Amino acid sequence: MLLFRHSQEKPVELVAGAVKIRFPWQKHPASSTVLPIFMPTIFVMDVLEQLHAARQRAEAVALCVVVQVHGSTPRAAGAKMLVYANGVVEGSIGGGELEKQVIADALRCLETRRPHFRRHDLLHQHNMCCGGSVDLYIEPIMPKERLYILGAGHTGHALARHAVSLDFEVFVIDDRKEYLDQIHVPGVNKLQADFSAVLPSLPFDAHTYIAIMTYSHPIDRDLLSYCVKQPFAYLGMIGSERKVEMTRKLFAEGRIASPELLDRVDMPMGLDIGAETPDEIAVSVLGRMVGVRRSGGGGRR
Q1: What's the average model confidence in pLDDT over 105-116?
Q2: How far apart are CA 116 and CA 98, in angstroms?
Q3: Which helix (H) or strand (E) holds 209?
Q4: What is the torsion angle, in degrees rounded to the nearest 10, for the CA atoms of residue 264, residue 234, residue 175 and residue 186?
């Protein structure tokens, strides 16, 4: 029974009497690690159910797993613990100084979005009299990033197509039905609506990516004036250097947004790779978004 899947490559699966985990270094599904359950089944199910619930809530959480033990240790292989970004913990991997260190490591993993593997010497590193060692793996499990593409033109269409393949949850929004009808990409959500009317109904958070690329410069600026004041991981607006200069000037004159706030906006949007075609522009924009995803930062630095 599949309880949780945080990516296509790294499933966590409950099998008979054990938990089956495929770690990043295991290139083939057949090489997955099977961890025996040496703890009450209800306890294990609670951790896995909490993990599934966190995914349903789109909440970041770090899964900490005792992969292997050597000598005397407080918990056996298979012990699991969840650490949330606010410091809340579910389950246990042994308590004491070991668990304190693992919680700190897990919080750092949530910040960097990178997995962590470490062997802990309980006596020499944590002053725990058990005397054995614990191999522990931490996997940060992040919510799926939501991408709002504001504009369903040729470049918006290309961006949606490529973004789906990079595991973004894609929403294309436009007030032109005929353009939305041309998008036939599985996994892309299409919404026909007036831009200014729909924005207040959309959720924004630290995992939201926004690409502004409508058919109108004034509409782009209106959308930017709203989005720049919302929480986001990435916000970009398409256009020339002249369009960007004009936007900065109008925003300053109208006291719409400070220069410091606008510095967080990627505009002109995308990496400077000389892109010209819709697909090339989409690749340059996704390059910037992937950079944000991997760095855990937000917007242009």
Answers
A1: 91
A2: 15
A3: strand 208-212
A4: 170
The pair of structure tokens assigned to 89 is 């913990």
Q: Residue 104 in 3-state DSSP?
A: helix
Residue with tokens 């009317």: 197
State residue 130's pLDDT score: 78
CB under 8 Å, gap of 24 or more: what pairs does 258-266 form? 261/228, 261/229, 262/228, 263/299, 263/300, 264/228, 264/235, 264/298, 264/299, 264/300, 265/224, 265/228, 265/235, 265/236, 265/237, 265/299, 265/300, 266/234, 266/235, 266/236, 266/237, 266/299, 266/300
b/e per residue 76-111 (b: at least 16 CB within 10 A): bbbbbbbbbeeeebbbbbbeeebbeebbebbbebbe
- So what's the pLDDT on residue 45? 57
d(CA 168, CA 212): 16
Question: What span, in angstroms and rounded, lies between the C-alpha atoms of 191 and 178?
Answer: 12
Per residue in 208-251, pLDDT (tens digit) is 999 999 999 999 999 999 999 999 999 999 999 999 999 999 99
